[in-house]
Write a structure and sequence with these properties.
37% helix, 132 residues, alpha+beta, five-stranded antiparallel β-sheet
């Protein structure tokens, strides 16, 4: 009986450790992917269009779409350093619009409110918080 209780406890701990916390983190500790970021946005109730291949100056593996009416581009890099180095170029993509670019792990997310649908910045804030 005691062995059964220990096995059940172990399974419970393993299940609790593997739960998605809604941050977009993947199965590997702290690892992010474009798909997990998009899944976190959807889980939070943000309206997300399908991402399509995008050609941008700061990345080769990038896709773009909208989240809550805000333009987004999500790029996947080989290393976290490459993603971090692309942040400035991501801000150039944002341009004069309200927005930001942020690297987290091997992913860079840039968001720009070009249509002025997010005057308070709440959507952009939520997009970025869920992308960490």
């Amino acid at each position: 009986m005691r062995a059964l209780v220990m096995v059940m406890f172990g399974l419970l701990v393993a299940a609790a450790c593997s739960k998605d916390d809604g941050t977009g983190r993947g199965a590997n500790a702290g690892e992010l992917s474009r798909d997990s970021v998009v899944a976190a946005w959807k889980k939070a109730g943000l309206t997300t269009t399908p991402l399509t291949a995008a050609t941008v100056a700061f990345g080769k593996d990038c896709q773009s779409g909208t989240v809550g009416g805000v333009d987004v581009v999500v790029c996947q890099y080989k290393t976290p350093d490459e993603a971090k180095a692309a942040e400035e170029a991501g801000l150039v993509w944002v341009g004069d619009a309200t927005g930001m670019a942020q690297a987290a792990g091997k992913v860079l997310v840039a968001a720009a409110d070009r249509r002025k649908v997010d005057p308070s910045g709440r959507t952009i804030n939520q997009v970025m918080k869920l992308s960490k």
